[in-house]
Structure formats: structure tokens, C-alpha cells
Write a structure and sequence with these properties.
Elements: H1 5-9, E1 12-16, H2 41-49, E2 52-53, E3 56-57, E4 61-62, E5 68-75, E6 82-89, E7 92-101, E8 107-113, E9 118-126, E10 129-130, E11 134-138
Parallel strand pairs: 4-11
Antiparallel strand pairs: 1-8, 2-5, 3-5, 5-8, 6-7, 6-9, 9-10, 9-11
Organism: Streptomyces malaysiense
Protein name: Bacterial spore germination immunoglobulin-like domain-containing protein
Keywords: Signal
């Protein structure tokens, strides 16, 4: 079967790598209510509910069709929610068939192969929340 030119320019995803569980550190409560300073309930929940995603590639450059990982953490996104890889192509963000669920600690890891040679601008998204753009150069 012949691989088309368009297909060769697309990004292929090999699979999803299970992210390692992270232990959450508990916060100690003050012994007396007077010693504990708390923000208003509305402000506290609004800050906790603001979704954010980070993304870090395991390499900055890679040969075409060679595996690398994208890992990151999320805040304000429920465990089990999928985060998806996007690539900038011709000035537009294209959603690639590469996604992985967020684990209970808020982190994720994704195994990726890129076939589009040159500088690839990528980001991770979940709904309307996007990570900062990161670049992987494919040779």
C-alpha cells in the first residue's frame, strides 16, 4: 500500500504512555481558627477551578518517525479528562489523533512520533484550555 504525500506530512501517534502516579502532599491545618488565615470562599474556589496545562517534550529535536514523550501537569481539570496534542499547520492549529487521560494526580504522559520535517509548533489542549506552545525540530 502506498503512503500518500498528505499522509506523510501528518503526525502519527504510536500510543499513550501511562503516567506515573504522583503523591499529593497534604497541607497542615492551623491548631486554632484564629491562627488560620483563609481567603474568601468564592476567591478560593475560583482560583482552584481555573484550568491550566503544562507540556514538556523529552527532546528538542528528533529524527522523523522517532518516538519521544510529551509530559505535563494540569490544574482545574478532572482526572480522566483527555488532553490532546495539536500542531500548527499553515497558520492553523490542527488536532492530531493523539490524546491521553489525565491521571488522579493531574499529570499525563504521551508517546509521539512526528513525520513533518522542520520546526513543529505543538501544544496540548483540553476543551478551551491550552498549554504554552513548545517546539520540536524534526530532521
Amino acid at each position: 500500500m502506498m503512503v500518500t504525500k498528505r499522509r506523510s506530512l501528518r503526525v502519527a501517534v504510536v500510543g499513550v504512555l501511562g503516567a506515573a502516579s504522583l503523591a499529593l502532599a497534604g497541607t497542615a491545618m492551623a491548631a486554632t481558627p484564629a491562627a488560620h488565615t483563609a481567603a474568601p470562599a468564592g476567591a478560593r474556589s475560583a482560583a482552584a477551578a481555573k484550568p491550566a496545562i503544562t507540556a514538556t517534550p523529552s527532546v528538542s529535536s528528533v529524527r522523523a518517525w522517532t518516538l519521544f514523550r510529551v509530559t505535563g501537569k494540569t490544574t482545574g481539570i478532572k482526572a480522566g479528562t483527555k488532553v490532546t496534542l495539536q500542531q500548527k499547520q499553515h497558520g492553523k492549529w490542527v488536532t492530531l489523533p493523539a490524546s491521553t487521560p489525565v491521571n488522579s494526580g493531574g499529570s499525563y504522559a504521551l508517546r509521539v512520533e512526528l513525520g513533518l520535517k522542520g520546526k513543529n509548533d505543538l501544544r496540548m489542549v483540553s476543551g478551551s484550555t491550552a498549554s504554552p506552545v513548545f517546539r520540536v525540530t524534526v530532521s
